[in-house]
Amino acid sequence: MSGWTVHDIPDQRGRLAVVTGANSGLGYVTARELARKGARVVLACRSEVRGGVARDRIGSEVPDARVELRRLELGDIGSVREFAAALPYDRLDLLVNNAGVMALPYGTTVDGFETQFGVNHLGHFALTGLLLPALLDTPGARVVTVSSPMHAMSNVDLTDLNSEHRYRRWVAYARSKTANLLFTHELARRVDAQGADVVAAAAHPGYADTNLQAAGPRMAGRRGSEWLLRFGNRVFAQSAEAGALPTLYAATAPGVRPDSFTGPSFAMWRGSPAPSWRAPWTVSDRAGELLWEASERLTGVTYDALKV
């Protein structure tokens, strides 16, 4: 995988991909490069206006791109159900669980979940479960979930998944990113137990220049923090194009292993895709099982085809 770039992405013609949060940053680059290689890409975006701009922009950068826009609000399980029910395809080669929020002031989703846990984990858990029949019906399908090196700040607290006892925005973010990895671990384990031909993998961008970092300070009115984060992005971060490479690798490269975690090669920060370190609690079968059971209960989405 040394020196792997977008030029190494295999031909994607005939494949169908869904990319959440495809209107900007890592999701936009991921969707554009998949389309450039011939995939039909569904841009799953919260804002139809911003999604429409992204669709048109991809069309201008990749004239023969086959992309379509569909609204998806991961903070609303009803919206997730509507998205999955309206998707007019009986197969799905690739689901990229990319969208996310970072270090927001305390808030809740439509369904009453703490926002970061609800959007980053529960929304994607529900989406994957609802699209599971199409994934299982597609030989060689993949589910790639985007986590973060920040997951190492904290394990999930199974007794307080919604941070009701105490809320610290960065800890809540870390827990949601640990949840992404535990979800990938448990999904891979259940797929293997059923002998299904689906690869569940995870990736992270290292430190990439996107609008994600500044959203929380902007919402909280912390202009100084917002300025510092934007300055740090300009000086220290790699581009969104480079940050998307680990996701694209996990999504397309031959031989990607189930439950693998791909990130930048240099100090989990920047560089070409490489196997990434992950905290030991993210490969706990017991924690994965307990989080899975809680996620099914909270979302009402059950993975009946992968019962263990």
TrEMBL record:
InterPro entries: NAD(P)-bd_dom_sf, SDR_fam. Coiled coil: none annotated. GO terms for molecular function: oxidoreductase activity. The keyword Oxidoreductase applies. The keyword Protein biosynthesis does not apply. Keywords: Oxidoreductase. Belongs to the short-chain dehydrogenases/reductases (SDR) family. This is SDR family NAD(P)-dependent oxidoreductase.
